[in-house]
Write a structure and sequence with these properties.
By secondary structure, the chain is α/β, with parallel strands linked by helices. The protein has helices at 3-16, 40-49, 62-78, 143-162, 182-189, 228-231, 263-268, 296-316; strands at 88-95, 102-113, 118-128, 133-135, 138-140, 167-174, 198-204, 215-219, 241-244, 273-277. The chain folds into two domains: 1-32, no CATH class; 37-316, Aminopeptidase (3-Layer(aba) Sandwich). The structure holds zinc ion.
Length: 319
């Protein structure tokens, strides 16, 4: 049950009791967050992907392999078909490590949900499942970065299997993001559909810890100003609302997020992109980015907001 549903239930209850003297408050108190069974899977996905036995999901490690098997199993359970060339896309690429640049081998996990209105145009919804692994005996669990985004992607997949999208949707759980967007770069180099048929890449990376400023940031409307009026009317969900930015020439260094995650690979190829994610927080890229630090009501709200954003984009994009 969403917070809005809880509120209308309470008001309904009061109206029903009006004859017995129930006084409706002038402005109802904010509903207590209710995490229903509906969100159990969403939270389980983050908890499982960020558990110690995933060893920080480093690209090319046994923990990364376990995380990949889990994402595959979830897509299979949801009945999401593989992309044109299969469920996995293998890649190799050079990336940073504590010992300098090394060759990584990884696998993207792909799914496809056909669209009803513009089936020959694609929205690529992406979230990287890898994280930085284990260093100095400490596991970097990466609950927010980016078990959360993968869980949001899987929840969107569940909704779209129940009610198909207008555009065809490619679900891409990328590997190798932390090593330099390696999986996303392979995807745009050897895409399962022509790049020219991709209407948008919508990338989720860190969708849980919005409590810092109450925002799920949307980056990319400076590059694609036509997309901003589609998302601006999407109302806040609980404590989380959209904010726009981190993408202008005035945003410099780590405050410019245009190439900060996998959407950067799409941007480099001229494919329209939007990124959704929360601001930096003290647990970012630290061993303390743990499941226990995620506030369920904030994460579920941010996920609902991200899904509402996807649905608005899917409805509004012509081609
Ligand atoms: Zn990330």
């Amino acid at each position: 049950m969403s917070p809005a549903a809880v509120r209308s239930f309470l008001l309904g209850g009061c109206a029903a009791l009006a004859l017995s003297g129930c006084v409706e408050p002038i402005s109802p108190p904010p509903p207590a967050p209710v995490i229903s069974a509906e969100y159990g899977q969403l939270l389980d996905d983050v908890r499982i992907l960020s558990a110690d036995d995933m060893e920080g999901r480093g690209t090319g490690t046994p923990g990364g392999e376990r995380a990949r098997a889990y994402v595959v199993s979830r897509l299979e359970a949801l009945g999401v078909a593989p992309a044109g060339f299969g469920r996995l896309q293998r890649f190799e690429g050079m990336g940073p490590s504590p010992e300098g640049r090394v060759l990584y081998q990884g696998f993207n996990v792909l799914g496809m949900i056909p669209g009803t209105r513009v089936g020959d145009r694609y929205i690529v919804v992406s979230a990287h499942y890898d994280h930085v692994g284990t260093y100095g005996g400490q596991i970097y669990n990466g609950a927010d970065d980016n078990a959360s985004g993968v869980a949001t992607l899987l929840e969107l997949a569940r909704r779209l299997k129940a009610r198909p999208p207008e555009h065809s949707v490619i679900l891409a759980a990328f590997d190798g993001e932390e090593r330099g967007l390696l999986g996303a770069r392979e995807f745009v180099k050897a895409p399962p559909v022509p790049l020219s048929s991709i209407a948008l890449n919508l990338n989720f990376d860190m969708t849980a810890r919005a409590e810092t400023d109450g925002h799920l940031w949307v980056t990319g409307t400076y590059q694609h100003p036509n997309l901003r009026p589609i998302l601006e009317p999407v109302p806040a969900v609980g404590p989380v609302s959209f904010a726009f930015g981190k993408d202008t020439p005035q945003d410099v260094g780590e405050n410019n997020w245009v190439s900060a995650s996998d959407h950067g690979a799409f941007f480099e190829k001229g494919v329209p992109f939007l990124y959704m994610g929360v601001d930096y927080h003290p647990d970012y890229h630290r061993p303390t980015d743990d499941f226990e630090r995620i506030k369920p009501e904030v994460f579920t709200s941010a996920t609902e907001l991200a899904i509402a954003g996807f649905l608005a984009l899917d409805r509004s994009l012509d081609r």
